[in-house]
Amino acid sequence: MAKKKDMALLIEGLRRIGSDFTALADELEDKPSVNDEVKPAISAETTKESISEEAPKQEPVQNVPTTKEAPAEPAAPVYEMSDVRRILADKSRKGYTDKVKAILEAHGVKKLSALPESEYAAVVKEAEALDG
After folding, report:
1. What does the pLDDT profile of the chain (132 residues) look like in tens digits?
2. Which of 38, 18, 31 is nearest to 82 (CA)?
3. Pairwise CA distance, residues 86 & 91, whole Å
């Protein structure tokens, strides 16, 4: 009996690892290649003269009277693909795999890499609600 339980745990662990590898591959697929050409910040043609030129002097900022305004609404958090992937993977590990898939499908995608950035915050909000 213990061997069957151990085997079930091993199989579940392997499935999770496979899922994590798939998620990692999807994330790497979305990243630019290391071999992509990178434009240097300063060209080799920069001359000594252009480096030694003085920057124009700026006037100091004067005291500007401030008015009390209502505090601005806090901005919605901005999520990166890696943040969303980490959160969804955590929910999946907690047993919400089917619900995570349902959230993605509700947003019109089958995998996270196809999700538009504008949907990241909504997906995270729905995923965080899974814990109650």
Report:
1. 577 777 887 788 888 887 787 777 777 776 544 444 444 445 444 444 444 455 555 666 566 566 666 666 677 788 899 999 999 999 999 999 999 999 999 999 999 999 999 999 999 999 999 886
2. 31
3. 9
Residue 85: which of 53, 113, 65 has the closest Cα? Answer: 113
Q: Is 5 exposed, middle or buried (0-12, 13-18, 19+ CB in 10 A)?
A: exposed
Alpha carbon 8 to chain centroid distance? 32
pTM for this prediction: 0.46
Structure tokens that stand for 10 in this block: 């091993």
**Structure tokens belonging to residue 38:** 């990178």
